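Hallway conversation turned thread

IA: we were arguing at lunch whether anyone had actually written out Valine--tRNA ligase end to end. Turns out nobody had. So, for the record, here is the sequence (964 residues) and right after it the structure tokens. Reply here if something looks off.
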Amino acid sequence: MAMEKTFDAAAAEARLIEAWEQAGAFRAGANAKPGRDSYSIMIPPPNVTGVLHMGHAFNNTLQDILIRWKRMQGFDTLWQPGTDHAGIATQMVVERELAKEGKKRTDFSRDEFLSRIWAWKEQSGGTIINQLKRLGASCDFDRTAFTMAGAAGDTSTGHENSPNFHDAVIKVFVEMYNKGLIYRGKRLVNWDPHFETAISDLEVENVEVAGHMWHFKYPLAGGATYDYVEKDEDGNVTLRETRDYISIATTRPETMLGDGAVAVHPSDERYAPIVGQLCEIPVGPKEHRRLIPIITDDYPDPNFGSGAVKITGAHDFNDYQVAKRGGIPMYRLMDTRGQMRADGAPYADEAAKAQAHAKGAAFTEAEADAINLVPDHLRGLDRFEARAKVVEEITAEGLAVMTTETRTDEDGNAQEVAVPLVENKPIMQPFGDRSKVVIEPMLTDQWFVDAEKIVGPALDAVRDGTVKILPESGEKTYYHWLENIEPWCISRQLWWGHQIPVWFDEEGHQYCAPTEAEAQAQAGEGVTLTRDPDVLDTWFSSGLWPIGTLGWPEETEEYKRYFPTSTLVTGQDILFFWVARMMMMQLAVVDQVPFDTVYLHGLVRDAKGKKMSKSTGNVIDPLEIIDEYGADALRFTNAAMASLGGVLKLDMQRIAGYRNFGTKLWNAARFAEMNGATGSDGQIPTPEATVNRWIIGETAKVRQVVDEALETFRFNDAAQALYGFVWGKVCDWYVEFSKPLLLDGDDATKAETQATMAWVIDQCLILLHPIMPFITEELWGTLGRRDTMLAHADWPTYGAEFVDPAADREMNWVISLVEAVRSARAQMHVPAGAKIPMVVTTLDAAGQTAWDSNETMIKRLTRVESLDKVASFPKGSITVAVEGGSFGLPLADIIDIDAEKARLEKTLGKLAKELGGLRGRLNNPKFVASAPDEVVEEARDNLALREEEETKLKEALARLSEVD
């Protein structure tokens, strides 16, 4: 039965996914050859709430290329799939579902709510796994893991291939707690007032918004004054005045209520006279106004604003560090919902306690945190409502720094008016990536890993080369983060997640154990225990992904075979959040590195280099691409743009082009089938014909290039080599070169060409399979009877020994001549169908042999009707140079030279104007500095394209000059 004219990607993909699954083609160890090493990859677990996006499609394409390649090489492979329970994201999804029913989480007990989440997970949680299958991901999906597997309520517990991830996480927490590596403490964290939980830096989006900078006076205690002096760079006095205040600027006036000090730089001479004195916070009831010290610290910048900074340690990360260094009390002003605190004693009593601290009374962190310094009339207000009130009260009291502005009165007269100094300026504001509310730095009780105690081995493993990070620039980032590591906050105030296995008695003593019964045994009979309600950050559990998915702490067969794993492919944005933490956790728990190589890639951007976002409307759905172009085209595009450290620009035109590439391969296979050139037995042919010897050598060359590229993670080089070989060498040249042999050759020549072509097409399928699995598997099954599916075909090992130097030289000479003649014809606008004469002045023996052996084919491919040897080229000829020979094309009587010249000169004139404009923009420092990066880069790309076009046109014009 003849092949279909075109490849039906949609029908074939669905059929092949099912066939691979039914054959168990991707199970751990499938196609492993006896004695081969293991090769394993752990999928970066997508959120169980997730759907396939371009980042997933890119990341998983690269993993699949590696695992299919290694599987075909006979390695004992495992690509471990799974999903992360995604604490906040999953809880948010289920709470939204409840809202549709008019219910909220707190209408349920914790266990009831969790049962709703498990039900949702069973119904909808596998979406992204099924979408990965559509991409062609060859994971061992029978082993799909889940970071909450085994927890109470898990309906899938007991599945033979589902490791109990929950118990592994709890075991690690208990062991690390007992070793003193985990502790509970009060630190500043990113707090999401919507979800009422701490979140990680990765879950915070810093967005530039329109903001304000208010300038206020903090009066000196007791009406003290000082001589305030400003000087220019040369030391000349530019301002001298007596002040009874110190000026500060803030974007968050509501936090002034919790100030513990005002800091200035030690070198700032302006404030030297008042360092060590007290100043008054200019807000709150006057009779209870607090005094705070003026201190020195290296944090304030003398050249920014007034050079004085208010220190609110409980609500700003920089201030927190200053407060820790200076022993400054930290007063928390807000509750978990981002409202001003309403608890505690009346303000008068609370302010008196804080004042005692300012005067030197000893205090603990907990004592300071318990004090509510929100004035009674502001308690319970939203933080932004409180901000407006604070600004209003300070301004009314005359403690705003004033400036003047010109205003017009009713009669139209301009006059200078004193107004509060408020700068309108853009500020970077943190938002929760899911809640979209402003994140509040909050001092709260949380659980922490003492990361400093476990970071050493993770640093050493990269320094000594045990683990390689690619590109190497990632190593510098890795070192920077780990050498400056802070305690890792691992608790979240959620219900969905691994609940922290610590119980408290009524006096606050802690009992850490895997179960309540074991905690009770520690506490003793009759002691009432309450479990910590918090859950573990998902980064803690996913930090155990490599061992947890393999069944640890059990010594499973998979754990012994596949750990440590081989390659991790992940985004550079989670190098610290996930990669470094896996390194620390595995080394701390099992004293082994989790992988030997980390391949980092950037964000997938649009064709212009812009970050994809819903707000800009440039998000590309990979499933829509697959629907339109097929998975293979998307995968080849991903591979082609995967240069180490390169910018990932997804261009829809490239995807369409690679679909055409698949069509080209399909047509070449159809040609082979129509000419009986299918059904290779896998043995490398030993043909006589030069063309056949040449293509076998070209195949051997590209096999080496592909292997070398994949070994060094240069996916783009592998894709480029295969594209050039399959389209150029095979589909174009070899198919054309083979036609005379198949149509006019003797029986022996025809038979060897059929055998060679069958083998070459099969090699194309094998070498392309890791990148384009669907079309290659379909063709593999169509073009002959096979012992195995292509996914399990043997990866070739042939090399340079199959390159025939004589055949290589001859056929490459023929190709260079044909390409040169075609290029000359195109440049000179010779009509495509016109047959033209050609002349030759010199030709060496090798060239003559190549011409004699391939004359008919050369003439047909170049539409040259004759070749005559001449002493010199006739007037009106253009030269065509090849190795060992000089050919000429007499064109004076074939094209209108003057018209062609005029056309080229006119085109060059238009191009010159475009080039001038582009160069002018790029030579303008203001444009380069102020325009968005993607706009500048687009201008540079356009300039390069136009310059390339200009070069070609000038070459063509120069050739026309030869004709005169």
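OS: looked through it. The chain is about 45% helix and 20% strand.
IA: good, adding that to the notes. The chain has a mean pLDDT of 92.
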